[in-house]
Design brief:
- By secondary structure, the protein is an alpha+beta fold.
- Helices cover 45% and strands 20% of the residues.
- Strands 1, 2, 3, 4, 5, 6, 7, 8, 9, 10, 11, 12 and 13 form a 13-stranded mixed beta sheet that branches.
- A hairpin with a 4-residue loop joins strand 9 and strand 10.
- The protein is globular, with a radius of gyration of 30 Å.
Length: 423
């Protein structure tokens, strides 16, 4: 490593060398905090939510350094009284975490294509074969977007807005923020065109340590013809294979297989999975997303993990906070019902205003009710009484009394300020 290597260059080198998880490139986007020991060649990218360091995917380092880096990150967080977690961790890191004594909860499965052996032939890929053939017959064309064009960038931005507007859920944060052009010089972008306009785009990130291409974002217009996204994936697979890559990943299928936990019972997780599938599917379409990825008939699947230490409730709340930039209620409500988020605040303000009005009316009509308040103000006025009683004392004595009172009040104020600063 060069002695003149900057922190940004170091992270880029580590991702280019040790990027194993498909989320590795995401750790270089803007907005992260970093834990990066000077004597260990690796780093952890994280955000801080509710006093919890929420880390992105895997630590980026050599495989042999994973236990040491994870242990040090845990100690770093504990020294600051933070909880910690890794979200979207690979099966490899899940195993290491379990061996270190951390909680490794399976939260989904990631489908992979072995590019050397996979093809669309056979019964398993029948639906995808049919969809891609129909898309081609409809006149959809797919190409890799290599030469930057302001016009195409504008179309992709428009597609992203239309895609997000069509979703039932509110825009999400953390790993699910839409940033198709972040680190674009490292990505591969594929676009689908129909009747002279771009109707869909797909961004793919490299994971060099696995010689893999990872499908990061799939965006399409609501009126894009059937088979558009399937054709994008197929053309990306063909291009990746032609370039000598070994694997293509479609990204995690959330909650897929999470009822079976490899590293513990986690009964609460199983109950939560059932509840999300039955109660929240109409917002997040877990079943549809998982079905979409299954119909590609991937070569194999790997478990994806949520890793933490401590209480599960606190960890779950912090995780939800990371994914909900507009507050936790926004995560639980479909987009058409987001207005309900203002109801609790509106109710509290209404109650407060009603209380003020009722108090004022009561004081006006029934003055006797204000007697305790008036007596309280009279008691507060006694603060000045000792100095006033010192009429027979010297001015120096009165001055000294007031200086002592001022110092006491200053000390109390400083203590309150420090307590709020620590909070």
């Amino acid at each position: 490593m060069s002695t003149t290597e900057s922190a940004t260059e170091r992270r880029q080198r580590l991702v280019d060398t040790h990027g194993y998880n498909g989320l590795a490139l995401l750790t270089l986007y803007d907005g992260w905090r970093y834990f990066e020991p000077s004597d260990l060649d690796g780093f952890v990218a994280f955000e801080l939510h509710r006093n919890t360091a929420v880390a992105c995917g895997d630590p980026v380092c050599a495989e042999a350094d994973l236990p040491e880096l994870m242990t040090r990150f845990a100690a770093h967080c504990e020294s600051r009284k933070w909880r910690f977690m890794f979200v979207g961790a690979s099966a490899r890191v899940g195993k290491v975490a379990h061996e270190l004594g951390f909680n490794a909860v399976k939260v989904g499965e990631e489908p992979f294509f072995d590019l050397e052996n996979y093809s669309l032939s056979g019964k398993g890929a029948k639906k995808i074969r049919s969809a891609t053939n129909l898309a081609r017959r409809s006149g959809i064309t797919v190409e890799e977007y290599k030469t930057q064009s302001p016009a195409i960038d504008s179309e992709i931005d428009e597609i992203a807005r239309e895609w997000l507007a069509s979703r039932k859920s509110a825009p999400m944060g953390f790993l699910l923020r839409s940033r198709p052009f972040a680190k674009r010089e490292k990505k591969r972008i594929f676009i689908a065109s129909f009747e002279g306009r771009v109707v869909a785009a797909m961004t793919c990130a490299p994971a060099p340590a696995r010689n893999m291409l990872y499908v990061e974002e799939q965006l399409r217009r609501p009126d894009a013809p059937y088979g558009t996204t399937e054709l994008l994936v197929e053309e990306a697979r063909v291009a990746a294979k032609a370039d000598g890559l070994s694997l293509l990943s479609l990204g995690t299928s959330p909650l897929q297989g999470a009822a079976a936990q490899p590293y513990g019972n986690f009964r609460a997780v199983k109950l939560l999975v059932r509840a999300l599938f039955s109660r929240a599917n109409f917002i997040y379409s877990f079943r549809s997303l998982n079905h979409y990825k299954k119909k590609f008939a991937p070569t194999f699947w790997e478990d994806t993990f949520f890793i933490y230490r401590g209480g599960m409730l606190a960890a779950t709340v912090a995780l939800a906070a990371a994914f909900s930039p507009d507050g936790l209620p926004s995560l639980m409500l479909p987009k058409r019902m987001q207005w309900l988020r203002v109801v609790p605040a509106a109710a509290l303000w209404t109650a407060a205003l009603a209380g003020v009005f009722l108090t004022g009316f009561s004081a006006w009509e029934f003055p006797v009710l204000t007697l305790p308040v008036r007596e309280s103000f009279e008691l507060l006025g006694l603060v000045r009484l000792p100095a006033g009683l010192m009429v027979e004392q010297t001015q120096d004595t009165v001055f000294a009394h007031r200086v002592v009172s001022f110092v006491v009040l200053l000390a109390v104020g400083a203590a309150v300020w420090q307590r709020r600063a620590r909070a």
